Amino acid sequence: MYAINSDIKENKLKSVYLLYGVEHYLVVNFRQKLLRAFCGTDVSSELEEDMNFASFKGKEISVTEMIQMSETLPFFAERRVILVEDSGLFSKDGDSLAEYLSEKPESTVFIFAEDAPDKRSRLFKAVEKIGHAAEFKVQDEATLKKWIGAEVAREGKKIPIRAVEALIER
Q1: DSSP string covering 138-150, please?
Q2: Could you give the angle at which helices 24-39 and 2-9 cross, rounded to 10 degrees?
């Protein structure tokens, strides 16, 4: 988490990110942060119509199609962003993509969002080598308290610690 925030803040973005783990809210939140950093917008109808953005979802996606899309140079933009969600490529059939990632165009960015990738897979190791793999685990109580306090403060409000604890308990 901190590494991705740092990459965005310092504008030192990597060309491959893998977001995974049981904290689905954080995976979605950081996917949105990365899309804003790379594309200037969230996943919306506006981004889906962007010719420099491609989204692949589900286990039936074609690695060949994904590679072909990434080979296309961006049109009037700095980068081509490819979002891959719930593909299962980190458990099987990801070897060809793992080989490709090291030789992909510099202008192409991959963002993967998966539930539970196999950390022994070639694709996972390739992502760690050239990009960043971020695991989002269940947050502890202290982290949740800080997060709730920060969210409330961002809205210009205050919240008593007992109310924070009640929220966490529920």
Answers
A1: PPPHHHHHHHHHH
A2: 10
